[in-house]
Design goal:
It is built from 17 helices and nine strands. The protein is of the alpha+beta class.
Length: about 425
Amino acid sequence: MPRLTKRFVDSVQPIPTGKEVTVWDESLKGFGLRVQGGSRTFVVMYRNREGRLRKLTIGKVGTLTPDEARELARAKLADAAKGADPAAEKAATRKALTVSELCDWYMETAAKGEIIGRRGERIKASTLEMDRSRIETHVKPLIGRNTVDSLADTDIAKLQRDVAAGKTAKAREGRGGVTTGGAGVAARTVRMLGAIFEHACRAKLVKANPAHGVRQLAEGTKDRRLSEDEIRALGKAIREAEGLGESSVALAAIRFLVLTGFRRNEALALTWDAVDIKGRCIQLADSKSGAQVRAVGSATLSTLVTLTRAPGAAWVFPGARGEGHFVGLPKVLERLCASAGIEGASLHVLRHTFASVAADEGFSEMTVAALLGHARRGVTQRYAKVDRAAVLAADAVAAKIAGLLDVVTTSADVVPMVTTRQAGR
């Protein structure tokens, strides 16, 4: 029985394929060199606490020197003597659930409606699409190969820092632009991961939530709104764009958004059967806060009735091609803002502008929340059926904004409009 030195190991010749020979080291019982075909690996053999013989691969020749392999073997044999089972532990690690596999389980199970969200409802398809995007863009590239059991809160905190720093930035497929990361995206990714781990804990797939206790980055307040001059400039840009070949559907959608405060997907996915002209409301079968009925103003309805509706068409804002709804709104708004000289505006800014105008007009926080469809206790329930107060509020806000959009000025002097609150003084 030789001592496994570098000279001896280098002298070992390959053996015919299919055969296996193990040469044991004379200086350390249980440490050996396994030769199979042209492959040479260091191994260790021991008995576990049940007396069963186990063989564990230490590493390949070339990757480890004989002395390095011997020290690793010595440590494994010491663990076995203390009652551990290194081979079983290695097999368990190999079979352990990775973060990628866990995320795939979540997406598949949630898509079947088998996961219940925090409101006691199935997770919406729109939410799952956002989750899928974060998983594929941020989670899998950074920690997808890690086993869930090996994760610590420090790993999740590092992921958040990496996403915020833009390490997962990439071009968006089919939409243009770049996913840049940032504090908001990073915080939402960690929040999503925490929810996935909680669902997995309830399903007994994992023992603990490694995201628990991780402090999320502050997303910052989104207080950008269009000023009255910017609303006028946007209206002018819309009128000019109509004669320059811009999509009339897109222009109507942008006007609709600023007149209602609707979220982008709520507006673009709007169908004609949800529009109640007589009731002056829109019935959303689904929204971020569930099914809702939203009051809309006369100016908003006037925008809708001017739209050309093809026979049998379902979408209020149909796409230029195919059977889907319009999707390219951010680019249209970008062109309008460039023409109007407006900086830092987005589709969400239109929503915030509506809310800000409503507040300027003197309406209460509860009323504004109801018009926006916020999920606040008592608000959605109160307006489950649109009452006269909600209609009057929506009408006043839409009229104010429409007045700014449609005003045509001939000089630089603009007379400020009087708000409802000012008129009541």
